[in-house]
Specification:
Elements lengths: L2 H9 L3 E3 H6 L4 H9 L4 E3 L3 E3 L7 H10 L6 E2 L1 H6 L13 E6 L10 E6 L18 H10 L4 H13 L5 H10 L6 H12 L5 H12 L6 E7 L5 E9 L5 E7 L6 H16 L3 E6 H6 L1 H10 L11
Parallel strand pairs: 5-6, 9-10
Antiparallel strand pairs: 1-3, 2-3, 4-5, 7-8, 8-9
Helix pairs in contact: 6-7, 6-8, 7-9, 8-9
């Protein structure tokens, strides 16, 4: 094996196209000999995996992209996956690939090909690893492919929370993709994320404030507790009388014992520093907004109108 071939296979997880193999010094006859001897395996129209066992998921990513003769790239969750994105639900099984509108492509099981009018070679991140779309475009696409707008907003919040892109990046991506599903919901979510929201619960609180004319909170504020330790607060209102109201939105993970005890300790430190702390579940922030808004008004959060419980 030549050094050029070894480097190519190392970079591409043991997958190469026929033209790449020839350019690396393997003749067409040599490729056929390896395939006929069942040392290598052909996939699609022009890909070869240089072993005879079942391809790994990483190798399927390469096959899905390289087998297309024109521009192609990982998209959506698949592009985020290679960037280290941690999924908040079930791990995706499909591999998502984007190609130009009207392109011809081979259909592989487990691979979903999306045709796009707004896809060009300049959009592709080519190194290192499998060609893929940038994180912001991938997040917007993944959001648009979700069945419900709430899921779409959750994708955007998670991508920013995991520092794969910024709210500004998402805003630019939304402006460039044209008409896509859930676009209005994603625009509102990006505005909330730009204001500091880092989770669906905080996005729901922002929506509640718009719905009931509450003054928007300051989000993810860093405040010292009574011991001087830095604490990140979900939502905070500084009232005209000098008091500070804090709303903490608890997701399902807060119900675990280790999180619950840490949350109680954290809350004691915040309360001891002179702040009023209210806690709610993510379910309340989403489905019981009228009651939550009334409670916030009751402790002094400014409202333009009366909210009845």
């Amino acid at each position: 094996m030549t050094s050029r071939l070894a480097r190519l296979l190392s970079q591409q997880d043991g997958v190469a196209t026929l033209p790449q193999l020839v350019a690396a010094g393997v003749t067409a006859h040599g490729v056929r000999a390896h395939v006929d001897a069942r040392r290598w395996t052909r996939y699609g129209d022009r890909c070869v995996v240089t072993h005879n066992s079942v391809p790994t998921r990483a190798q399927w990513r390469w096959i899905a992209v390289l087998d297309h003769r024109g521009p192609a790239a990982l998209a959506g969750f698949s592009a985020l996956e290679v960037r280290g994105f941690t999924f908040f639900g079930e791990e995706p099984r499909l591999i998502h690939v984007v190609v130009p509108r009207g392109a011809r492509y081979h259909r592989f099981p487990g691979v979903k090909v999306h045709e796009s009018r707004r896809f060009a070679p300049a959009d592709v991140v080519v190194a290192p690893g499998v060609p893929r779309l940038p994180a912001a475009r991938s997040a917007v696409d993944a959001g648009a492919w979700q069945p419900f707008p709430r899921y779409a907003c959750g994708v955007l919040a998670a991508v920013v929370q995991q520092r794969l892109c910024s709210a500004r990046d998402l805003d630019a991506a939304l402006q460039s993709v044209g008409r896509v599903r859930h676009k209005q919901a994603m625009r509102l979510a990006v505005d909330d994320i730009a204001g500091g929201a880092e989770a669906l619960g905080e996005i729901d609180v922002a929506a509640m404030c718009r719905r009931f004319d509450l003054r928007p909170p300051q989000r993810q504020r860093v405040r010292p507790d009574r011991t001087g330790r830095r604490r990140y607060l979900d939502c905070e209102w500084e009232l005209a009388d000098g008091r500070i109201v804090v709303l903490e939105v608890d997701g399902s993970h807060h119900a675990r014992v280790e999180h619950w005890e840490a949350d109680l300790s954290r809350e004691r430190g915040i309360v001891a520093s002179g702040r009023t702390v209210l806690r709610c579940t993510a379910t309340e922030a989403r489905y019981h907004q009228r009651r939550l808004a009334a409670d916030l008004v009751a402790v002094g959060v400014p409202s333009l109108r009366v909210v009845r419980r």
